[in-house]
Structure to design on (465 residues):
């Protein structure tokens, strides 16, 4: 028998890349590849790249420099190593990658990784293979399905891509140019994926897309279904206990999504809703197509149907033209909304985006100072949100063994890690936990005995058994 070939994938950036990496593994499994944690011993190394941040490309080229030494060492040992660059940097830079890093054998964009087996063969024959076009055919129709063992090995939580691309064209964002226009998968295809996952132990789903609440896939009735209706259908799949989605745009929160949060017990009351800035002037320059007041009204709509709902968001500081007054409007928005968590970044120009042509008027020192102030406010809100859980009993979906021996970790409805001392047979179960303390961002607590167990214990004491 031919020994299996070893595959190492390093993913950067968003949840979409995590999902794509898993699907690359599934696509290459029929070719005899098995995963390894070591790049040095791999026969194929794939860098699954992200192009959102300023230094993303440079990180890739730095990693390629290290891999060149690993590839040379493999060759000296008589082993051929192939190196592929996939994802959004591959889509954006294409030929430039192989010019700067001749060690690369394959360059493949995020819409074409289902062609990886063919591209690897072409590279072995021709020396190199590049595919960064947007194919006409939907890649999801060609991807190999994950094996049951692979699903179970990935745990009880899974990502499912339901939508890709973005039509918003925010001036700072490269996604429309690397992922293409918005495309939604048919409901039936998503349902098949979800049933397969549920049949193999998955309890929690996160539906993902660059602009997930712009979902408009074809339903079994031939009509276009919004995200809210898709969530309603997926909540009916046996075994699926929790549903989430990410990432959303404030303009695409429709009534069906609000209704889903009102009506579906499985839909978690935690929404990631990026706003980027609290200044209308900066939002306009970003081409966000909403105002700060629009955003507040969306938040109010969610809160009107779920009083326990919480939010996270994304913020950019130092966008070209941002004044101190603009920045204070962002601080005011954060103060008014109150976030359970948020991600904040200094503005970095992405080549090819409209904002890259704007004059950067905010110095690096000002950006650093503003980012520190914003993150301090966000951290205080997150800390207060987590401390509020102490003394309460919350439902936790247990995922895996923790680093500390005898400890099992799971997540609350708000994605807070929660640790308890228990046996591993609780993995995959949703159980009530009394929260006793907080350690950094993790909750520590004890399992609350179910009523039946408590009654049995009391009966045993009463009878002297």
């Amino acid at each position: 028998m031919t020994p299996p070939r070893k595959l190492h994938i390093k993913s950067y950036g968003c949840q979409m890349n995590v999902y794509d990496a898993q699907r690359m593994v599934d696509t290459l499994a029929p070719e005899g590849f098995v995963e390894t944690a070591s790049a040095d011993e791999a026969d194929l190394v794939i860098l699954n790249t992200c192009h959102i941040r300023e230094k993303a490309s440079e990180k890739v080229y730095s990693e390629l420099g290290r891999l060149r030494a690993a590839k040379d060492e493999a060759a000296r040992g008589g082993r051929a190593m192939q190196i592929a660059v996939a994802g959004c940097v591959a889509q954006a830079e294409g030929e430039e990658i192989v010019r700067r890093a001749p060690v690369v054998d394959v360059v493949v964009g995020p819409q074409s990784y289902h062609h990886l087996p063919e591209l690897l063969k072409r590279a072995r024959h021709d020396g190199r293979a590049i595919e960064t076009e947007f194919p006409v055919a939907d890649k999801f129709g060609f991807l190999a399905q994950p094996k049951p063992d692979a699903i179970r090995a990935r745990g009880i939580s899974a990502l499912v891509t339901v939508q890709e691309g973005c039509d918003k064209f925010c001036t700072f964002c490269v996604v429309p140019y690397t992922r293409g226009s918005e495309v939604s998968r048919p409901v039936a295809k998503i349902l098949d994926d979800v049933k397969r996952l549920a049949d193999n132990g998955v309890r929690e789903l996160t539906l993902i897309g660059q602009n997930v609440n712009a979902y408009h896939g074809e339903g079994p009735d031939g009509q276009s279904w919004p995200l809210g209706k898709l969530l309603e259908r997926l909540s009916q799949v046996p075994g699926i206990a929790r549903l989430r989605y990410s990432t959303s745009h404030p303009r695409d929160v429709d009534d069906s999504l609000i209704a889903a949060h009102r009506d579906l017990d499985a839909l978690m009351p935690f929404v990631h809703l990026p706003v980027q800035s609290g200044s209308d002037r900066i939002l306009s320059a970003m081409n966000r197509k909403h105002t700060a007041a629009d955003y507040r009204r969306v938040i109010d709509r969610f809160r009107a149907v779920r009083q326990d709902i919480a939010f996270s968001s994304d913020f950019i500081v130092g966008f070209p033209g941002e004044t101190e007054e603009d920045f204070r409007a962002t601080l005011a928005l954060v103060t008014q909304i109150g976030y359970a968590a948020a991600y904040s970044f200094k503005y970095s120009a992405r080549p090819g985006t409209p904002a890259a042509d704007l004059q950067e008027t905010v110095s690096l020192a000002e950006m650093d100072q503003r980012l520190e102030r914003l993150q301090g406010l966000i951290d205080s809100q997150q800390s207060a949100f987590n401390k509020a859980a102490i003394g309460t009993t919350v439902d936790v979906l247990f995922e895996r063994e923790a680093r500390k021996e005898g400890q099992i970790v799971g997540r609350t409805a708000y994605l807070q890690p929660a640790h308890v001392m228990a046996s591993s047979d609780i993995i995959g179960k949703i159980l009530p936990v009394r929260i006793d303390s907080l350690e950094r961002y993790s909750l520590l607590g004890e399992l609350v005995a179910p009523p039946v167990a408590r009654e049995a214990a009391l009966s045993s004491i009463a009878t002297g058994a």
